[in-house]
Amino acid sequence: METYWERRRNEESEKRPTKKNSQKENKKHPYKKVRK
Q: Biased-composition ranges for Basic residues (predicted)?
C-alpha cells in the first residue's frame, strides 16, 4: 500500500514540482545532490 501512495505522490510531484517537493526529494535522496 505504501508503494502505491508513494508512486502517486512521486507522479504528482513530477507533474508540478515545487520548492517544498524539491526539498523533500533532496532529503529522501541526498546522494543525488552529492552526485550533482
A: 17-36
pTM exceeds 0.70: no
The grid coordinates listed for 12 are 504528482
- Condensed to tens digits (0 to 9), the pLDDT of residues 1-36 reads 678 878 887 777 666 655 555 555 556 655 655 555
Question: In sequence order, which residues have a C-beta less than 8 Å from that of residue 19 and are 6 or more positions away?
Answer: none
- Cα atoms in the 13 Å half-sphere on the side-chain side of 23: 2
Q: Tell me the torsion sign for CA atoms 4, 31, 20, 24.
A: positive
Structural domain containing residue 10: 2-35
Report which of 22, 9, 6 is spatially closest to residue 30, judged by C-alpha positions: 22
